[in-house]
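Proteins fold reproducibly. Next comes an illustrative record:
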Amino acid sequence: MMDIGKINRILIGHDNVGLRSGWFLASVQITVPVQGRQYMFPCNRWLDKDEADGRVEVEVYPSEILPIEKLINYEVSVVTGDVRAAGTNAKVFMQIYGETGKTELIILENRSNNFERGATDIFKREAADVGKIYKIRIGHDGTGIGDGWFLESVTLKRLATKTKGSDKNNKKKKKSEEGEEEETKEGEGMDVYTFVAHRWLAKDEGDKELVVELVPDGESDLEENTYEVHVLTGTVWGAGTDANVFLSIYGMERGDTGERQLKRSNNLNKFEKGQVDVFTIKAIDLGELKKLRIRHDNSGTSPSWFLERVEIIDLKESTTYYFPCQRWLAVEEDDGQIARELVPVDEAFVKKDSENDGQSPATLGLEQKAKSTTYTVKVKTGDKKNAGTDANVFITLYGSKDDTGIVSLKASKINKNKFERGKVDEFTVESVDIGDLKKIKIGHDNKGNSTGWFLEWVEIDAPSLGQCLKFPCGRWLDKSEDDGAVERIIFPADLQTIEYIPFVPYEITVYTSDIFGAGTDADVFIVLYGSDGICTQQKSLCLNKREQRMYFERNSVNQFIVELEDVGDIIEKIRIGHKGGGLNSGWHLDRVTIRRLLPNGKGSETVTFPCERWLAKSEDDGETVRELVPSDIFTEKLMKDGTLKQIEEEVEDPLEVHTYKISVFTGDIYGAGTDANVFLNIYGDMGDMGERKLSKSETNFNKFERGQEDTFTIQAVDLGILYKIKIRHDNSMFSPDWFLEKVEILDETTEESFVFLCERWLSKKKEDKKIERTLYEQSYDGERNSLDDSSLSVSSQDSSANLKEPKKSSLVKAAEEGSLIPYHITVTTGTEYDSSTDSRVFIIIMGPQKVQTERLWLDLPEGKDEFADGSVEKFSVWGLDVGEIKKVEVGHDGATPESCWLMEELTIVVPTKGVMYNFVCKCWLARDKGDGLTSRILNILDAECVNIGIKILYEVTVVTGDIESGGTDANIFMTVFGSNGNTEEMLLEKNGDRFERGQEDSFIMEIADIAPLRKMRIRTDGKGTRPHWFMERITLRNLTNQEVATFTYGDWLSKLKNATGSLVCEMPAVINDEQMMEDTTYTLQVKTSDIGGAGTDANVSLILFGEYGDSGTLPLKESNKSNKFERNQMDEFSFSEMLSLGDLCKVRIWHDNKGIAPGWHLEYIDVMDSAMDKTFRFQCDRWLAKGEDDGQLIRELACANNDILELKERTAYEIETVTSDREDADTKENIWIILEGKMGRSKEFLMENSSKKRRFERGATDTFQFSSKNVGDIAAICVGHCPKDGKKSSAKADVFWHVQEIIVTEMELCNKYYFRCNAKIPLRYKRRDYKVFECAKVTESFASKARSLVPVKYETIVVTGFEKGAGTDANVFITIYGLNGDSGRRALKQKFRNLFERGKTNRFYLETLDMGELKKVRIEHDNSGLAPGWLVERVEITNSATGVTTIFPCGKWLDENRGDGLICRDLFPRY
């Protein structure tokens, strides 16, 4: 085909001939190696006259274009010699080497009978572009009859791509049929190489080699070289092998020899114990040798082989290379590999080893390990029927520089039976320097019974590179499934790549003492510590039980090479121990040495850690874990002259071993004690001591009983200043629940003591059901982050820093700068078959001009492993503030065909912008569904956008008193009141360990924009196992302007411990040492009317509303009369220690309808505020009775003092302009402005600039006053910029005024209107050219709000959905929120009516004082009755005074068992 460049779309169809010609096409994949692209065209539709739209051809667009390896075309002509029996039937292969690399093995075969005597065979092959070619290797495998072959010559044409003109006319060859004889014009863009062989490749002719390397004619500088290979088999028992051994030698710059079988040795029986076998290999000179790969095929009776080393003599240069191995190549020994890559070492190291022959174990493994990369390969077999295989699986890893060759996956570290359904197998592959992993090839040989295999994924972890790659497959490797392939090439999934700090190799040698019973078969583990508490993970030294039995015998020396985290230059200490178990697990350890390479690789250092103690439960102090410190360091350096220099030195002042006395106090409450096993880990600024079991109490035989103190002694290397402990129990034995009061730790060496308060349950049944706790030292003030255990700062470390300055978490810093903001994301998964996914889901939020957040991962909480069908998952993530959101990308990292996900809807709430976006997507994110995309970009224009009110970020700090059992696990609710309204009641998240005794807990909350703050109300629900809470104080810090308000209480919130038994408290805000509200006493006089039956015995409550919020519910209990609320009686109630609400505007009063004849006719209420010395009258004159008036038991009364100001026609406006603080913002000319109001448009106000009084200067604020007619609520302003002198000529084109903000105040009611402009106003002579700004924010004055408080009837319509089971019999409640307050929670009831039935509409009337524009509705039910689940379609509310109807759509279930399980929803209006 001609090259058409990048493929944009394809047309595919059929001719609809024949029976059953309909075809369901899933997808088309097109691979174009010459472009290096693979296109995926998903179709997923019928091409059939009788299905869907009846089309039999369709245009398809690509869903993804993957980059693959770019290949070019080669034409190979092979000439077979014209001698007798020159032809061959064996399989011929070749490999091409060039300046930039090598191709993979190319098999030369096609349909005709190739390689006959005197014939020329031409092959076209695609392979990697290797640049200028310097050699080829060609050979055959010696199979078939008459396999000897006389090769005359090979001609190689490299068909490079011509690039003339545009990309479109490239006549590249693409996927041309291999057999076609296609004439290619020689000329530009083609390199021709000729290789003359003229020799036999036969077992019985010439030099008996079947493989030859050739250089192109005319390239004289490369010659053939002969390498003499000496293979030394070890002297271990069973070291020899009968398997076939293969070797490949690699040069520094000139390629490699390819894999050659080591056949003809100087010994008849090859590779026997202690024997040296010599082979010769001919190859084009490789230059200096870099590495070799040696493997065997695991055939024969005893294939296990212990290879001592390989020596290679370069006969041309006559130099010898030493490749030590000293390891098994065996499936059942060592790490199970039967292939090893070896690197050469200096002769000095090898000679050093042979001198002290057999004394110490070999020590060169470390050098080998440092130069090689160890890959841990995990292979996941799918969880499908017959997914497992018994065939032999092999893998090849391809890097940017080289590949590993074929590696057989024989020895799984996890499962005896490999590749079984749903299992993960783990293997080790070692290789030397293959560069970055690009792809893998994995397959099997199709042998055995059930060979078909469903491969889910392969994960390859290379600790020394700090990279873990995931290769998703999700396909069959089966002759009879999918496309019938039994090997696949897989590329890594970028999104699933994990990077971390690379590991380094350590050589750990363990010396077991020469004492009776010193050995152990237990699982021995080790942890290394550097300075500043950096430590490695805990690593078991033995891989399996067999090794445990082999190693750690009496008087033995065992060496392990492990890759672990880099702990820095100095190893301060190690922890070594064993897990016990088995017979005689006691172990007497003499010492441990750890060898590491010096940074430049020229030599190493060995650190010795003496122990000479038992690790046994029955010996010494019964500990099975020891911490050891170094005694001396031995360094070996390789000098320039090739000798080794050795230095021994003692470690200067190593860390001391300290004794820690640990006192554990169990609480004195019922059931506090435990019989479970308790484990403790202590953390200091110099590291931790590892988890230790608290086994022998020195004070009590029966440990951890109620009210007792248990003391334990633990030895550990100096931990420095202790700042946290982790304590847990294993929930074993009869009653494991444990109430831990505190832990005290005394460092006996320094006599410092540390206290860790707990006062909590460790129980699976009580409180938060956790049996592990992290406790911080009382005086610790660093970050208390339970997630991140390492690198926590302790105040002692940076004591030079100013300790008064509280440490800020990084999140708070970012929020202060305004760079990061919270996004709340709700994801609903569809309910169709296969909708769920266990992939990781991400979201990217994009603003204008390529501003976007990073990829925000929506990681499911612990315990959930998938986005299940029909589930609703909520996430809060912090991301970059992108300004105005334009697009949202959502997707997942699943790359297999299996990982499909149906996203039903997506909701994004941006609290700091006050908007909520709702996308109803109903789209598949899947490779094999719909259009094949796993991520899509949603345009914000397709979302429904709802205003939910701007929230401001505050840092909230809650201080719990340091008083016995001051902490709580009750739910704590906070309401904040400001001059501009109040928040709703918000739950303060416990988050595991907040609100505990003596703690300061800081977290970020979103609070409505109501500043300046006035007061706070805190309520606890008094539930939980520890309902009492001693609350010291709470501070709120506005992260945008750093204003701090402090609210101090200093008392219990508790029914028992508080004098009044109160669970609610109110605190005034203290800002800059000024209390924002006055203390007062409210005296209420309640007058019952003089009407028959006016009195009541019901319980009456009320709430006062004023300038600074509300009073909370005040129950009218203690009257000056014994019988309250009798006809024509005045009752007086007094409430002392209240906060003055300023001017009052309304009262909400209700009763609970209890007692005989509870109906009540209220005349009025008078409220006296002692601080203001003012009385407020609230006239009622109405019934609160079921059977009278409108049947409401709740009334809202307006204050009679609210002067009903008759608004005058005229008023004054104050206009304040803020000029931007930036260059060229100022102007010398005039500005004019027009106000657009709800009642009309103002005249033009001219704001004049004069030379005497300069206005509109950079960063300045200017104020003007104008009188005008009243235009009502201002919706927008028009702003223009005109020349002072009014001359046309002076209106220059490039003069601007840059205005930041304009604030208009209406002087009669003092309502303020804010316009956030941030725009340039051009200077224009004409009045037609101006900018319009809409009102961004209104702060309504109290007088104005109070004015509008008139009683209004709200008609409320609730529509129930039409789905099955949509109706409910539960009790329903509604709260309506408006600009001027809310309605309170009202029950929606009607006598003798069955409400809220499926598909029905119910109408209710509520009377309240006018709430202004309605902002939201909260609808909820109490989940009572048989089937309480309820599908609410929508709520409509009509203000009967204005006739304005607001619609609140819902369309969701209020059902604990569906979706997000909420039975209370906030609905926002749709305009």
